[in-house]
Write a structure and sequence with these properties.
single chain; mainly alpha; 14 helices; about 0% strand
Amino acid sequence: MTPRQPNPAASAAHQRLFPGHVSTLPVTDPELIEYFDNFAFDEVLRHSGALPERTRLMTQLAALIAVGALREYQAMLGAALTVGVTPVEAKEIVYQAVPYVGMGRVFDYLHTTNEVLTERGVELPLPGQSMTVPQTRTAAGLAVQKQIIGEAAVDALYAKAPADQQHIQVFLSGNCFGDHYTRTGIDVPTRELLTFAMLVALGGADPQVRGHVAANLHVGSDRADLIAVLTALLPFIGYPRTLNGLRAVDETAPPTT
């Protein structure tokens, strides 16, 4: 019987992303690896071509954090670094996840990222990327929040929040946007794609997914970009969450024909 193995295109992509890596799974689970690799590293890549490879891998890393896939994240982080995602970008993906999935989940990913970077000879800490201080974070965050979401939408969030929840709106401006979105290392449009990927992968955040579809459109991405991200995430987050993401895209940025 002929051994089961991925097709030539999938094998070539896998070798380029994971050079020299010898997995035990083709031995223990040859059928699954044959069709998963054919799907994830050939078929899916042919339908996510609107997305640059580095951006695709960055969104996949963000989604893997959100779904809690630590071992797969570690493998894909190696692939991302191999094809040119920088250590600063890798760290910024992890930092960007904190306001969306919480430090409870990010803690292990932060340590794993540090271990992978150290094994590759990267000296830590990396150069700082923060552009705010405690005295400026809220004002700077509010400005970038309005840039991303729209001034009227942000003003409405503050206006609609009850008095005993106003502090949450301040937290969003100062912490979510001021501490994170003002950082250098990754530009705002890419950060928004990362956030979209995390929220879709997280599940149960449909209103926030719709909000960040609109935010992505506001900062320059389009329907094709968002569908390309969802296509790239599908093998790693499954169909239900991907389909929910597609519904959010269709509701907020419907096809033109």
